Amino acid sequence: DYDYFSIACPHYQELENKIAEIISGNTKETNLKVLEIGTGNGSTTKVIKKVLPDSSIDTIDNEKIMIEQAKNKLKEKDKINFILSDALKFLKKTKDNSYDLFVSAFTIHNFEKNYRRKVLKELYRVISPKGLFLNADKYALDNKEIHDEALNWQLNQFKEKFSDISRQDLIEDWTKHYLEDEKTAVIMGERKSINDMEKIGFKEIKIVFRKKMEAIVVARK
What we know:
seven-stranded mixed beta sheet; globular
């Protein structure tokens, strides 16, 4: 039920629009090789396809049901390659400098830290020189007080918005998911994430969007 998430995240569409704006403003070519990790319901894939209609997109998800949802959502599937795979396994089989652009949304924060670092290292390897890295995701604010305020706001949004549509199950599921993301082994802190990317070799790392718990991080290889 990922389609319901936008009901409880009022800035969700603004974030997706920002992804489109960033891609448009940072890519001169239209015929690119694009990698997306976390197909989900296809919302971000749709954004990429709209901005770069002539580009080929490899979009990966480890859940068959999500790939099926994405296929149903996307009317234009030309040059979109849906891949059912674990992200790290796929990346390790991929040649160096294979992709001009990497895009992901609401996925990398789900990874445990050790796995996430391995994924980022592999991403750096498979992105082409000067290629663009774009991740729209939950980056925990370094100020714990502000972070906790944002977390509580989001949990209240789940309770309020999903109560309006009589979906107690969604309140429970999304609350559980967000609290799982707070665990030490998983939480993706803003400053720590940028530091890890710098150590790997990424350059020009910037936070170009921030609303509550969500941020967009861009970088170059």
